[in-house]
Amino acid sequence: MTKPLALVTGGARRLGKAFALTLARMGYDLLLQYHSAEEQAQKTKAEIESLGVKAHLAKVDLTQPDQIESLFSQLDFILHPSCEEFILLVNSAAIMPTGNPRELELQDWDSALDLNLRAPFLLAQQAAKRMSAGGLIVNISDIGAQKAWSRYPSYAVSKAGLESLTKLLARALAPSIRVNAIAPGLVLPSDVVTKEQWKQLIEKLPLKRPATLDEITSTLEFLINNEYITGQTIVVDGGYSLV
Prior knowledge:
This protein is α/β, with parallel strands linked by helices. The protein has seven helices and seven strands. It has helices at residues 14-25, 38-49, 65-79, 106-130, 153-173, 195-204, 213-225, and strands spanning 3-9, 29-34, 55-59, 84-91, 135-140, 177-184, 233-236. Helix 1 crosses helix 7, helix 3 (65-79) packs parallel to helix 4 (106-130) and helix 4 (106-130) packs parallel to helix 5 (153-173). The longest helix has 25 residues, at 106-130. It is globular, with a radius of gyration of 17 Å. The protein starts with a strand and ends in a 7-residue tail after the last strand.
């Protein structure tokens, strides 16, 4: 019996880990890409395998195109002797440099665009070559794609581009491959936001609370199960887009 295999980027921690664990509970074997979170990646792998499915780790810098190619070489190696079928890519890896447009360093602009936008494009290219029987690509965007976040210009622009890329790929890869995006609002506080700033952001929300991880990951389950959705960005933001 063929088992489904999913590749999750940024799968060691935070939302990427939550998506990976959700897929494991659904019966997927996992290939988890991570960059530097070695200890967290090993712990996530153990958690996934405790659910009775396989987990493979790939330490890869997604800002380097040649390493993206090596990631898929590893995926091919996993698939070749097994009964697994690669049918799902979740592009969750991202960085969020700070700095207003007057001060943002070129390196911070390039690093955000390379990881948050170029990498999902290159990953989708490689994934499409291997989804011979069809599949699903899910890009993890952000409500910031719709906001003029002057403190995070490269991040906001990269996520806006990612949502545009989602539509483009959905049209180009149809009908066998669907492409969608999930745009969470406030879920987990980032390292660049203080506790007081996080509290103030929460108070602005119509629902007055952050999302639970289950409320975000259930959106991935929905996109997997509803095969008539493509080219869409599903916003899960507690009303943040209304503010």
